[in-house]
Design goal:
The protein is of the alpha+beta class. It has 33 helices and 69 strands.
Length: about 1350
């Protein structure tokens, strides 16, 4: 806690006045009653003898309080008997407010406050140059919901060009984001924001994100007193001002008569000099006494029903009197304007409603403007009118008293809809944008209860796309869908389809192309497979092939489109550091969440406690220049604790947020602990009387149980000590039991030194806190290993499976869930009475049950309150797997994707989760790029829970058997434009190997061939009806080779034909490598169709750490093979292929333990012919630039290679040719500036015909040109080097998106943005109308261009 720096400065500035004038002794009791001072502080003040000491102590105490306490102190001073004290209190309060840039202008509707603010701001801009060059934004709020305000602020962000990393889901999130944004963008924070007609007091919390704002309201809201400077608009004009307004509508010669006419004065008294009424009467242009008398008679009617609240006269009578001056047709047309929302109404919308020509409509509007019934604005940009809200209220009253207002308004709304229908001939997507139709037609359709129109528009993606291109955002469409869903629910109609569409918009808006705003393409990429949305989008895409070219996903990666239980996302903070938020567990279900804001070193951090559902802050604790490590909150949400860094040490602080008092810890002897330096603190999750707290000592060997009573946290006498450091000590979910476990060995030390005496054992204990007794104890191995289909205790600390997470399942019978590395196990289950699992080297299969095995280690486990659900997450994995328990048996399982935002990334420790108390809702917290809290409803009826036993046999869940089956290698190609995918799959348990082949746009499996040998690689080649499997293994049999070599390698190549949906083994070619490397790695494989040759490029790893290249060529028709291997090789490292085609191989490598680098050139001749042509060596400081000219006729002798240092790179880029390696053929004509990469010392330029490309070896493309006339500076990651020479498009990968550029102009022509496509490698057919995408997990997807014959 603490005062804001601004208020602290005010106290310091007025210190002498406080010292002299404020009688602290007289105020102590009231300060205590207001909870500004605690009991301890009151006692300390009473013992102060000197006035100065008392004042200093009080100011020090006040600085620890919130700003609200400062204002209460000012109020106390203002109520004092002494005038000097009252004046000081008022002066302090005024000084605190003078620094605020927030103003609230309030007054009843019609008093002229909006006009006054507009004129004042205009005067300041025009005459005093205020708010320049930043500008003024005027936002009309009105009677709207929180969701509508959110959409308004999002639209404002769009106008300000504020880039949102992820779409905020509520006002709290957008407010938090904008506050941080304006801190970093000072210019935009200087804009003056005017929020007009704010009618909800809670909106004030979300309109103070910038430094300067004016809020205009009809009412005064006391809760805003501390933060806003309030200005009350007068409710009536002076008589002089009245005469000035009347004179505006009269000739100058009548001004004096108006001032002297008593009838005028009486009429003005009747309407209380009210500005709106005066303006309406002025519009009548009354001249005679008879006319004024009629006005007096009309305005003195005392009909209580005709009066409006807040007004002391009959305002409607004044409006009626003015309207009655119009003829019947004009009255009818004017009354029709009551259908519009209280916004700026475009003239074109009024013309559409009135069904008249523009000139006639403008003439009538100008007449109404002259009568002050509306304001007509006409400028070069647009023409519109504004109707005062009270006049609009009048227009919405039915003329026929027998008709209800609802039915009358329904008729008006339907009339407006019919007018728009006639304008567009029922083709709603063709309706021109008049500034009102696309914004509000859904509102009018709901008010008219036009179900047919609503169903049409909410499924008309063409209309939605027309609207989207106007607003450049999905915000308004989301608002329309939300309103329509609410309408359906109120009428007990099914809204599932539209909720699905709304969820899609909210979750995946990031994937919308902001340039084209092509909604149909967005839906084709982001909608779930086999949904009504996809079907509708494909239908429209086929109809629009003449206008646009659309792409769709014909095959989704496995497990990427399952139904998600996602409910919503909350951005709870803008910078929490590395701490995790915590939730309370209240009985009433109103969850409070605690987190830290602006938690950075040497910054002013704030601890915030807010309501989860509403996101409203309940408590804020300011911690100047403090870093927070952890936060805690008690189950009832009344006690909080946080671990901070202070004076280079860590300590806990505990506060009662109800009384705002800091709690002290008292030991068994009744002494206060000076420092709370525990390693860990946890609140007992069960609410039973006084809150119970568990603490773990700094050395993690002692635990203590405490009780919170009043302002003290008392030692209960319950404690325990251990000889080993505790790995974990925590309350078991929703119980008063404690789970403790520790290792009987030093895990850290074992990793760095041998310890033959270590004991492979961990101890698990369960304690009952209530009666403090040792409930249960278990012994388990610290390390286990899986070999030959069984689990045994690990023989050494190098065993891969170490115990990392333990959870206790408090069901009958009980069990323990444990994570050993990548394996999730259930221990001591099925009613077993055993308490120990042997750490000896014997089969442990009977003592444990395997639940799940992953390819990544398990990072965390969470358990629901009822212990029915178990959630696990893997290291650096965005998926969470849920297991549903029935007693101690796993019944079903579910996988959910837990990061909704595409920019969200994971680093170690980023993703964390917890169950919401008393429910099956899961909260997932991700820290990057925004501090987002995702909520998932695991009780959703649409979730696809898999039966656990069945899922062991399916590919939908990563079960044990599936994890035993791994994809060794995969390959993909196009054969006659048909996508073919091959996967080499091995079973880790029994060592068997299968070859699976998939075909077509839907990637249907056509073959599953059981292999008799275990292969390591598989290869497919474009337009080749066969695939190649390769097996490499070391052999010690002397009979295999003629020369006396003890160890050698065999390379086995097996050819399969894939024809008509079947696999046929054709032949096997074996080759023996008479050498003894430790490992062989295949880096490249190519098929040269011209002479039936297969080319393989390896590099070998030897025991002496050398890495030579090995090139192998095989004729698959004759079986002839050849391997090129240079015996006289240096010790190479960092081996990379620069360029490889059917006739040339260029490689790059570093010389180990040297500053030398080398480029090797191999010529792959016709037939089986390999030649190491040349080596180019250079020093690493030379920073090489290499240019390669590839022959178009594929003649190897025509290849040109040139080298230059970086400082002469512009000569290469200028297009110069070589006749040698050191001289240029012609002088330079131009220069191109290239910035050296921080990631590479070398770059490569490859020319092939008219195409030139320059790139680094990390696939970063710098420059691409077509002929000499076109050359572009780029900085992109290419999807595949082969894409540099395609016939149509250059393809780039960036931030999960795939960009297509025209190969000649390099203009961007298409972007693939989909939550389901994570491309690592990409291959296309010849026409680039069909693409195979492979992700990091070797999952495949197919993307198809719907229109084949039109350009993108």
């Amino acid at each position: 806690m603490g005062l804001s720096p601004q208020l602290e400065k005010i106290l310091e500035k007025n210190y002498n006045k406080l010292l002299v004038r404020v009688p602290i002794n007289e105020l102590i009791s009231e300060l205590k009653a207001k909870q500004i001072l605690s009991d301890d502080q009151v006692n300390d003040l009473k013992y102060c003898v000197r006035r100065k000491d008392r004042t200093d102590l009080f100011i020090k105490a006040l600085k620890t309080r919130d700003d609200e306490d400062f204002y209460q102190f000012c109020q106390i001073l203002q109520q004092h008997q002494a005038v000097t004290v009252r004046n000081l209190g008022k002066a302090l309060q005024n000084e605190s407010k003078s620094n605020y840039e927030f103003h609230n202008v309030h007054g009843i509707a019609g008093c002229g406050k909006t006009t006054a603010v507009a004129q004042s701001v205009k005067l300041m801009v025009d005459e005093q140059d205020f708010f320049k060059p930043y500008g003024v934004y005027w936002i009309k709020i009105g009677d709207i919901t929180e969701n509508e305000l959110l959409q308004m602020i999002l639209n404002l962000c769009q106008q300000l060009d504020v880039k949102l990393e992820c779409k905020p889901q509520n006002l709290k999130e957008i407010d938090a984001y904008l506050r941080l944004y304006f801190q970093d963008h000072h210019n935009q924070s200087q804009i003056l924001y005017i929020f007009d007609d704010v009618r909800n007091s809670t909106f004030f919390d979300y309109l103070a994100f910038a430094d300067k704002s004016i809020v205009i309201t009809s009412l005064f809201y006391p809760q805003t007193r501390e933060n806003y400077c309030h200005i009350k608009a007068p409710e009536k004009l002076t008589y002089t001002e009245v005469i000035q307004i009347l004179a505006l509508h009269q000739h100058k010669r009548y001004t004096k008569k108006l001032r002297q006419n008593q009838l005028v004065a009486q009429a003005m008294d009747n309407i209380r000099h009210f500005p709106l009424a005066v303006a309406i009467v002025a519009g009548l242009c009354l001249k005679t006494d008879q006319e004024w008398q009629q006005t007096i008679d009309a305005t003195c009617i005392n009909d209580p029903k005709a009066k409006l609240s807040q007004y002391k006269f009959n305002l409607f009578a004044v409006i009626t009197m003015c309207i009655d001056q119009l003829d019947q047709k004009k009255r009818h047309l004017f009354r029709q304007l009551g259908v519009f929302k209280h916004v700026e109404i475009p003239i074109r919308s009024i013309i559409c409603l009135w069904q008249m020509n523009e000139q006639e409509a403008v003439d009538l509007l100008k007449e109404l403007d002259s009568r002050s019934l509306l304001q007509y604005h006409d400028n070069s940009q647009r023409s519109y009118c504004i109707i005062h809200e009270k006049i609009m209220d009048f227009l919405q009253q039915p003329i026929d008293q027998q008709k209800s207002q609802q039915s009358y308004m329904q008729e008006l709304h339907q009339a407006l809809i019919d007018s728009y229908r006639q304008r567009c001939d029922g083709k709603w997507c063709n309706c021109p944008d008049d500034g009102y139709f696309y914004q509000h037609i859904i509102y009018h359709a709901i008010q008219a209860e036009d179900d047919k129109l609503l169903a049409t528009l909410m499924t008309d993606f063409s209309w939605m796309m027309a609207k989207l291109k106007i607003f450049k955002s999905l915000n308004n469409l989301c608002q329309d869908l939300g309103d329509y869903i609410n309408y359906l629910k109120l009428n007990d109609k099914n809204s599932d389809a539209f909720e699905e569409l709304l969820d899609l918009f909210q979750q995946h808006e990031f994937y919308l192309d902001k340039e084209s705003m092509n909604l149909i393409q967005f839906l084709l990429y982001c909608a779930k497979k086999e949904s009504w949305i996809i079907d509708k989008a494909v239908q429209l895409a086929n109809q629009k092939t003449n206008e646009d070219n659309y792409w769709m996903i014909t095959k989704y990666p496995q497990n990427k489109t399952d139904d998600s239980p996602w409910i919503g996302t909350k951005t709870i903070d803008t910078n929490s550091g590395l701490i995790l938020p915590k939730c309370s567990r209240p009985r009433d279900g109103k969850i409070k969440i605690i987190y830290a804001n602006n938690n950075r070193w040497k910054k002013d951090c704030t601890i915030i406690v807010s309501e989860y559902e509403t996101s409203k802050s309940k408590v804020r604790f300011s911690l100047p220049k403090t870093y927070v490590f952890e936060v805690r909150i008690s189950p009832d949400g009344n006690i909080i604790a946080y671990l901070i860094s202070r004076d280079r040490r860590e300590e806990w602080e505990i506060h009662n947020i109800g009384t705002r008092q800091r709690l002290h810890a008292v030991d068994q002897n009744g002494f206060k602990l000076p420092v709370l330096d525990w390693k860990k603190l946890e609140f007992c999750p069960v609410i039973t009387g006084y809150p119970t707290v568990l603490t773990v000592s700094r050395d993690r060997k002692d635990i203590i149980i405490w009780k919170i009573q009043g302002r003290e946290m008392k030692h209960t006498g319950k404690s325990a000590s251990y000889p080993h450091r505790l790995e974990r000590c925590e309350f078991i979910q929703n119980t008063s039991k404690i789970l403790i476990w520790w290792r009987r060995y030093n895990s850290y030390r074992l990793r760095f030194q041998e310890d033959k005496s270590w004991i492979n054992e961990c101890q698990i204990e369960v304690w009952n806190v209530q009666d403090w007794y040792h409930h249960q104890s278990f012994e388990v191995p610290g390390f286990i290993q899986y070999q030959h289909g069984k689990y045994t205790a690990g023989k050494s600390a190098s065993s891969r499976l170490e115990l990392t997470v333990v959870k206790y399942i408090d069901l009958e019978p009980m069990s323990i869930i444990a994570a050993y590395g990548d394996t999730l196990l259930r221990l001591f289950s099925n009613g077993s009475q055993a308490k120990r699992i042997s750490n000896s080297n014997r089969d442990l299969t009977g003592s444990l049950t395997v639940i799940y095995r992953s390819d990544k280690y398990i990072a965390d486990i969470a358990v629901s309150d009822d212990h029915q659900l178990i959630a696990i997450r893997m290291h650096l994995e965005k998926n969470v797997i849920i297991f549903r328990m029935d007693k101690d048996v796993v019944k079903s399982c579910l996988t959910i994707h837990c990061v909704q935002d595409t920019k969200a990334d994971l680093v170690d420790g980023n993703l964390h989760f917890m169950f919401v108390s008393g429910s099956h809702h899961l909260l997932v917290y991700n820290q990057y790029p925004m501090y987002c809290l995702y909520r998932y409803n695991l009780e959703d009826q649409d979730l696809n829970w898999q039966d656990f036993q069945e899922s062991m046999q399916t590919s939908d869940q990563r079960s044990v058997q599936e994890c035993n089956t791994i994809v060794i290698d995969s390959s993909h190609a196009f054969v006659h434009d048909i996508p073919i995918i091959a996967k080499l799959v091995a079973n880790k348990q029994n060592g068997s190997c299968n070859l699976k082949v998939f075909q077509g746009e839907r990637v249907q499996q056509i073959a599953d061939y059981k292999l008799d040998q275990t292969y390591q690689r598989c290869f497919l080649y474009d337009d080749s009806d066969f695939l190649i499997l390769m097996m490499m293994y070391a052999c010690n049999k002397k009979q295999c080779v003629s020369n006396p070599v003890s160890r050698h390698w065999h390379i086995v190549i097996t050819q399969f034909h894939h024809l008509r949906g079947s696999l046929e083994r054709k032949q096997q070619i074996k080759h023996t490598l008479r050498d003894d490397p430790e490992r062989l790695i295949v880096k490249e494989s190519r098929h040269r169709i011209s002479d039936n040759t297969l080319i393989f490029v390896f590099y070998a790893e030897y025991e002496d750490e050398s890495q030579p290249w090995i090139v192998m060529m095989v004729n698959y028709m004759s079986g002839e093979s050849m391997i090129y291997f240079d015996d006289d090789y240096p010790l190479y490292e960092d081996m990379r292929i620069v360029f490889c085609n059917n006739y040339n191989l260029i490689t790059y490598q570093k010389v180990r333990n040297s500053q030398e680098l080398a480029i090797e050139w191999y010529k792959l001749g016709d037939g089986i012919n390999i030649k190491h042509f040349k080596t180019y060596s250079y020093h690493i400081q030379d920073q090489l630039a290499c240019k390669i000219v590839v022959p178009m006729n594929k003649r190897a002798d025509d290849l040109e290679i040139g080298l230059l240092p970086w400082n002469r790179l512009r000569q290469i880029m200028a297009g110069a040719r070589y006749n040698s390696l050191s001289r240029l053929e012609r002088p330079l004509q131009q220069e191109v500036r290239i910035v050296q990469s921080s990631r590479a010392n070398e770059c490569f330029v490859i020319e092939k015909g008219n195409v030139m490309s320059m790139f680094f070896l990390d696939d970063e493309l710098l420059t691409k040109g077509y002929k000499d006339a076109r050359r572009r500076q780029l900085d992109m990651e290419i999807a595949d080097v082969d894409n540099l020479w395609t016939d149509r498009y250059l393809i780039e990968k960036s931030n999960g998106q795939i960009y297509f550029y025209d190969k000649i102009t390099l203009q961007l022509v298409h972007v693939i943005q989909s939550p389901y496509i994570k491309c690592q490698r990409m291959k296309s057919n010849r026409q680039q109308s069909l693409f195979i995408c492979q992700d990091e997990e070797r999952q495949y997807s197919i993307i198809k261009r719907i229109a084949y014959n039109s350009e993108l």
